[in-house]
Each structure stands twice: as C-alpha cells, then as structure tokens.
Amino acid sequence: MQSSLKLGIVGLDTSHVTAFAELLNDPGHPYHIPGGNIRAAYPGVASPDFELSYARLQPYTDELANKFGVTLLDSEEAVAESCDAILLESVDGRVHLDQFRKLAPFGKPVFVDKPFALSTQEAREMIALAERYRVPLMSCSSLRYAEALSEQLRRMGGDPIAGADCYGPMAIQATQPGLFWYGIHMVEMLYRVMGAGCVRVAAETNADYDLVVGTWADGRIGTIRGNRKGNNKFGVLVHGEAAAYYADISSHSKPFYASMLEQVMRLFHTGEADIDLGETLEIIHFIECANESRETGRSVELRLNR
After folding, report:
1. Most buried among 90, 97, 252, 276, by the most CB within 10 A?
2. What single Pfam family name could you report for this chain, choosing any that match (predicted)?
3. pTM across the whole model
C-alpha cells in the first residue's frame, strides 16, 4: 500500500491551493488523489503591485486553515522541515527563485506551479539549485495533463506527430509579461504534444489576439492562438502524418488539476519527474523568445545552447 506523505504548501495567494486540498485531503471527492495530505502551509508575502496576489492571499489562507485544518507556519524553511514534499504555489512567478533558494537545501521533492520562472536565467538558477541539492523537481501547467488531450494522444497510436495547433484564452498581466500569465497554458500543451527541440519562434499580436508559430529542428511546426476576445475555451488540434486529432479540453469531466496531481504525487513518491528539466527550461526560453517577437515583430532564434 502506498504510504501517505505529509505535504506542505508555500504561497497561498492562488485558488490552486484550495482546489488541491479538495483533491488531496478529501477521500470522498470523486477524483480524490491518494498518497498524501496537505498538513502545513506558509502563506508567503503578497506582491503589492499584483492585485491577484494581495487581494486573494488572506481569503485562501483562511479557507485552507478553517476548511481543511492546515497548520499555518511562518516561513518556507518551517514548511520544508515539517513536511515530506512541497508544493510551491505563489501566484507571482517573480518570487519563485527566492523561495526555492530557501527550500532546495532540504533536498525534498518540490513541485513549482506555473510559471516556473519569468526568465531563462532564473530558470537555470533554479535547476542548478535542484542539481546541487539533489531535489526532485517538476513544474508545469495543469493543462498539460488535460484528459481530453491525453485521450487523443492515446488514440493516435503509432501515428507520428507532425505538428499541433493550440488555442485558448490569453489575458495579459503586466507583472507576468506576455505569454507567462495565461499563454503558458497553450505552450505547455504544445510541448506535451511536440516535445523539446524548437529552434525558432515568431509572434503576431494585436489588442484581441496573439498568434505564435514555433519551428522545430526537424521541420515540424506548432502554433498557439491566444484569444482576448470571443472564444475563451482551450483546445488542441494534433496533426499526425495519417490524420488529425481534435481535443476539446473542456469536454472531459475530470479536473485538469486531478490529472496533474497524479503526476505530482508520482514525483513525490518516486523522485522521478514526468517532465525533463531541460524541457522545462526550454519552455521558459520559448516564452521569453515569443515575448521578444511580440515586441519586435521579428522571428527569434532560441539560444539555449549558445
């Protein structure tokens, strides 16, 4: 029987913390994820220039403590000391590196919610810390594991993937620039399908829409359409060499979070992440390059190996 881990959360300014608690702490939930319970949390410090941080920190902290009985602690280190594994959930990607610096020396598994970091340099530093302290580390958007997408990938069987077109809502948040706020969901879905290896990205943007085109080293092409007007649903059209496969992401009853938490719990129990950290680094770099292309109107070569 799988042992039950004592889980801790750092950063309570996001709805993810209560959604995760429902799935992990309530055995009666139809999509309950076994293997661990959230026992302790450090609320963190709200970002004063980010309303979605400072307006939500206290309400979600109160709900986590009062509804789920989670013990509130006063630092990242206190959470790491008292728990077997950590969910780093702060909504502001700007604080993740500093928080991870405090968690990494404990050597315990850490899941970092999206966005992992807001620059390639910060992502490199976090990965270096994980390697130095042998921290099992994983980061992603929950959309990566949406059941509708997983079902279509299974349907493909051996049909080689030729490309993918991903779409979804793409609100812009000044503190998490360009694709780092909501565009990252489509980027994660694209990389779930295509894997690492993008070499060039080009973006078109206006007040209502973004279109981002990535070219992979083997010639395959993947696209992202971000909507700020009209359709606010997520979807993916996966192109195989023999046929195309459409995933309506909202069509499945299983929550995105449940599918993602299955992979997070695998990380926590085995120390093995489903996503290679090299791919996570490339995702952050892809977004950085896409943002550059949004600003300049020119295609941008990915520069990870330079």
Report:
1. 90
2. GFO_IDH_MocA
3. 0.96
Q: H/E/C letters for each residue in 76-117?
A: HHHHHHHCCEEEECCCCHHHHHHHHHHHHHHCCCEEEECCCC
Q: Which of 80, 110, 135 is the last residue of a domain?
A: 135
Nearest alpha carbon to residue 208 among 232, 174, 181, 243? 232
C-alpha count within 13 angstroms, C-beta hemisphere, residue 140: 28
SS3 category, 178: helix
Whether 193 and 293 share a structural domain: yes
Q: Characterise 301 by phi-psi region: left (phi > 0), alpha (psi -120 to 50), beta (else).
A: beta
**Token pair of 242, please?**
């023999």
Residue showing tokens 């997983």: 150
Q: Which residues of the chain have pLDDT under 70?
A: 1-2, 306
Instruction: Decide if 80 contacts 99 (C-beta within 8 A).
Output: no
Of 75, 101, 135, the position where a domain reaches its end is 135
pLDDT per residue as tens digits for the range 235-246: 999 999 999 999
- The span from the CA of 264 to the CA of 289, in Å, is 28
